[in-house]
Structures are given as structure tokens and as C-alpha cells.
Amino acid sequence: xxxxxxxxxxxxxxxxxxxxxxxxxGDPTVGNEVDGGGYERKAYPYSLSGAxxxxxxxxxxxxxxxxxxxxxxxxxxxxWSAASGGDLLVTGPLDNPRTIFTDDVxxxxxxxxxxxxx
Length: 118
Prior knowledge:
Number of helices: 1
Low-confidence stretches: none
Helix content: under 10%
Shape: elongated
Strand content: 35-45%
Number of strands: 9
């Protein structure tokens, strides 16, 4: 049995309603979320495209505030159900890991933070 394209769209819309993007310095399933230094999770504005697999991607710019301390090398993202705490819903590696130093600003332009439902 498989999930239809419409099933994927409904599931993703339900799951992605009011979620937040976290930055991680390693595998998000074992922690590693950036902490301190002006960091906070950001809302994940999304759009869906394709069908079976359906692709979710950020539909607008996601910009983090300037780091007030070094954050380390950000290698992964996690999509969480809350602005702090909550449940980890989606994880993925960044195409281009980046070391964030004091005063750096990390941004994801529209369409660059995406994943597939399959």
C-alpha cells in the first residue's frame, strides 16, 4: 500500500501548520541544536509542489538574527512543532554547511530549504 499524492499533500499541510526551523551542528535526532548567542528558531513558511513525492520548500526568506557569539558549524536543519521544545518532525543536512561566527547572519532564500514526502 502507498500514500496517494492527495494523501501526501493533506499530511504535509497538517504537519507543517505553525512549525519552526532549528539549526543544528550535527544530527538533529540526537540533539546538537544551536544554543545561545542570539539564536532562536524561525517560522517555516512553506509551499508544496509536485506529486508523489510531494516537495515542501520554504516559500519566503528565512533569516536568523545576527549571532552574538560563535554558533559553530551548522550542518543540519530540523523542523519542530514549537518555537522551543516540541517534537522533531523533519530533519535534513544542509547542502552547504556553514560556520557561523559572531555577527554572521544565516539566511535561507525562498526555495532552498526543502524536503520530499515519499
